[in-house]
Every structure is written in structure tokens, then in C-alpha cells.
């Protein structure tokens, strides 16, 4: 399994702990430096739009709460489909989850600017822009 946008490797570590051979990837050297201290497995720094792997290098490619930040989501999906043999795992933030609500409250008070960079890919209702 390749987890892209792994950050500190939280899910990469979890998959490894339950017996899945996992590799983490991220574009951020800061996040990967923290992941390196927490995870002894393989980590790669790269842009998800141009994955540095041969075709079908992994059984699956995972994106956990990162997909809304990609500039060209279609290109990222094409790369993931090229690199993953069997499929793509996606974890998206539920806008009604406690974690999402907490982030919105933090953002309202200027404490969590991370959501300023996100792009809303689809919603069934009109959704205000947070940029």
C-alpha cells in the first residue's frame, strides 16, 4: 500500500502495524521529517501529480483526508491508477464529524489556517467558499 499525503505517517504506521506492507509519501519535507522519527518503513518525498514509481508498483494507493488539496485531482487519480494494481483507497472528511467541526471553529478564531488551501470537489448543497 502506498499512502500519499501521509504527513507524519499516522495511517501508514497503522497499516504497517496490522500487517500491511505500507509506504508513505508526501510533498512536505517537514512532515516527512516527523514521519521518519515515528516510522521505520519506507518514505518518499514527491508530488502526487507525478508519482516516482513504475506502473503497478503497489497493490493500492491511499489518500486519507488529503485529496481536497490537490491542484489537479484528475491527474492525481490517473497517477494513482497507474501505480496501484487493484485500486485506490480514499478517506474524506465528513463535514458533520466532530473533527471537521473542531477545525472549522479553530479556523473561525484564526487557529487552523490549513483549510484555506482546500478545494471542495463535490457537495450536494451550495457550499460557501473559505478562501
What does this structure look like?
- With 131 residues, the protein is α/β, with parallel strands linked by helices.
- It folds into 2 domains: 2-91, Rossmann fold; 95-131, no CATH class.
- Helices cover 31% and strands 19% of the residues.
- The chain is built from 4 helices and 5 strands; from the N terminus they run E-H-E-H-E-E-H-E-H.
- The longest helix is centred in the middle third of the chain and has 11 residues, at 73-83.
- The N and C termini lie far apart (33 Å).
Give structural attributes.
131 residues; alpha/beta; Rossmann fold; 2 domains; five-stranded parallel β-sheet; 4 helices; 5 strands; 31% helix; 19% strand; globular; disordered C terminus
